[in-house]
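Shipment paperwork, digital attachment
Item: protein structure file
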Amino acid sequence: MIELPIYDNAGKKVDSMSIDEGPLGGEVRPALLKQAYVMFHANRRQGSARTKSRGMVDGSTRKLYRQKGTGNARAGTRRTVIRKGGGVAFAKTKTREGYRQTMPKKMRRLANRNALLAKLVDDEVKVVAGFGLDRPRTKEFRRMLDALGIDRTCLVALRGDDRAGALSARNLDDVDTIRVEQLNAFELLNHRYLVVEKAALEAFLAGHDGKEAA
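Attachment content:
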């Protein structure tokens, strides 16, 4: 069991909670996390980069000069890859679908939970009893993060109806927000810290919404 401290807005420990490693994978699984990270990253690619091969470039196909007798190196058309204005050797033609990768649903869900376990093991999860924001207040949110010892990139997991928290964090440097039911391995591993309310974390661990980000 992992004993996780719970803090108030001032960074003072007010409670603790126990988390069972079993549902999170039991142990950190680097190979699984790497596979999930690469998949999420590949699926974000736009696939919009385009270049032209020698067959796609406009220009004559006439041989520039005869093969022998000129003293120059052999040359073909002006569209060759070694000439300015010619094509490229390996044209980029992949679409977004060409980069997509998949994983079985059970593996994706386990990777999401295992990434959370990795954060818990490294003491990079900060649980707050409640943000206590009735309206957007960026300064108060910044003070709370400072009190929690957040000095690197931070991912704030919010309840779906917590608009005040989302608006309070959106203008802070190195701070990103995500709905707690959409927590995934890519976002967790891309940030040093995870900040989450106790109720939201309990809902995620219990699968309260019946689904997880996939």
